[in-house]
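pls ignore typos typing on phone
zinc ion + seq
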Amino acid sequence: MLSLDIAPRGRPLRLLCVGAHCDDLEIGCGGTVLDWLARYPGAEVTWAVMSASGTRAVEARRSAAAFLRRAASRAVALHDFPDGHFPARFSELKAAFAALARAGSPDVVLTHRLEDRHQDHRLVAELAWQTFRDHLILEFEIPKYEGDLGNPNLYVPLTPSAARRKVANLMRLFPTQRSKDWFRPETFEATMHLRGLECRAPSGFAEAFQARKLVFGGGG
Ligand SMILES: [Zn+2]
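k done
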């Protein structure tokens, strides 16, 4: 299997991660972020969560600090759009995305899948595609009751350390979620195991994404 490297030449990797709710980014791409920050020193990360208020904002901030510990620079943007009601706040969300675009041009945008069954997730994915028109967007997956996992086409094999730390951080840093029956180490490990076997990850663990559009070569 040809392995592709996302690092730009001659300058640090710029990464934008946009999640709807607290813990979405960690569940969807936490292992990938940990792995890339170890692999690409100097990376600059913008980490945006659209619904984070009160206790959940405290959790989101602590978690961002843990996941982005190795980033050369990190900007954390927390908004307080109401959970479950993003479509009713479309214009303000679009403005929040425009502000992210004005703040800089990322090499990679990590965000939700367009096919996600959660309306907030789906709208965030749509706004990412509306806003970032000349960028690599990779869409992560969130296991959920609706059972909307698809057939990803891009895999990031994780080191054992990245996979382990992802799960440990999730369980440690989101105490408000522990009462939910699905918020268990087994959920996160199982998803990474499944994607790990699909891409023959040496560690057995991987995260997977929908890479809807890839452009090869500069054409110049
Ligand atoms: Zn969510």
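Helices lie at 24-39, 54-67, 90-102, 119-131, 160-173, 185-198. Residues 20-21, 24, 118, 121 surround zinc ion (CB under 6 Å). more later
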